Amino acid sequence: MHSVIAKLRGHAQDGIENTQGEFGKLLSLSPLSVKLDEDPTPLEPYELSALRSAQFKPEDVGKKVALLRCNNEQYLLLGVVE
Q: Residue 23 maps to which CATH number?
């Protein structure tokens, strides 16, 4: 039991340490599309997942957004940066 808990804790810490915040521009809502500041090509739909509490409105298109780059090669879209 202790080894399982230790392994889970290790994976959780690894995910936190290897997760990086990034910024991008919201290009469209449907389909959800974002272009990162450092990368000129928009993210593919399978690369992007939005935080459930992030509610985007049509007027948010073109605004700067915050994302987290995760270990599984996906990005978690957190919301619009004010």
A: 2.40.50.140
